Amino acid sequence: QVQLVESGGGLVQVGASLRLSCAASGFIFSNYAMGWFRQAPGKEREFVGAISWIGGYTSYADSVKGRFTISRDNIKNTLYLQMNSLKPEDTAVYYCARRTSRSTVSSAAITAYSDWGQGTQVTVSS
């Protein structure tokens, strides 16, 4: 069964950096494009970034572009999200997600992802 487990969240100050990880299992990780999403209190889940199956193509939401970097290690079956220059508005639960079966290209659409992790909390205080 597909499992995605996020980790690395925590409480940090404005301007700090944080690296999130998503450990994947139950499928051939290298065959799927992956994405990061987040959901803040009272808001809808939103796209953060996505990466192609190999890792050569990435895309980001405008709100995080230039600050966040998505990457993957297909040997370790792990997805990463490096977050720099964190802002209070980055506070949210962050989720990693897997594209639908046989999907190898990235997408910003929530509907393009079929499997989700439980999320990890990121809190940025001023």
The computed structural class is mainly beta
End-to-end gap: 40 Å
Shape: globular
Please state the CA-atom Rg, rounded to the nearest Å: 13 Å
Q: Helicity level, as a percent range?
A: under 10%
Unreliable sequence segments:
none
Strand content: over 45%
What is the count of β-strands? 11
Q: Number of helical runs?
A: 0
Largest sheet: 7 strands, mixed
List the secondary-structure elements in sequence, H or E: EEEEEEEEEEE
Mean pLDDT: 95
Write structural notes for this entry.
By secondary structure, this protein is mainly β. Helices cover 0% and strands 49% of the residues. The protein is built from no helices and eleven strands. The chain has strands at residues 3-7, 10-13, 18-25, 34-39, 46-51, 58-60, 68-73, 78-83, 92-99, 113-116, 120-125. Strands 2, 4, 5, 6, 9, 10 and 11 form a seven-stranded mixed beta sheet that branches. A four-stranded antiparallel beta sheet has the order 1-3-8-7, with no helix packed on it. β5 (46-51) and β6 (58-60) form a beta hairpin. The protein is globular, with a radius of gyration of 13 Å.
Question: What can be said about this structure in brief?
Answer:
The mean pLDDT is 95.
Keywords:
126 residues, mainly beta, 7-stranded mixed β-sheet, 4-stranded antiparallel β-sheet, globular
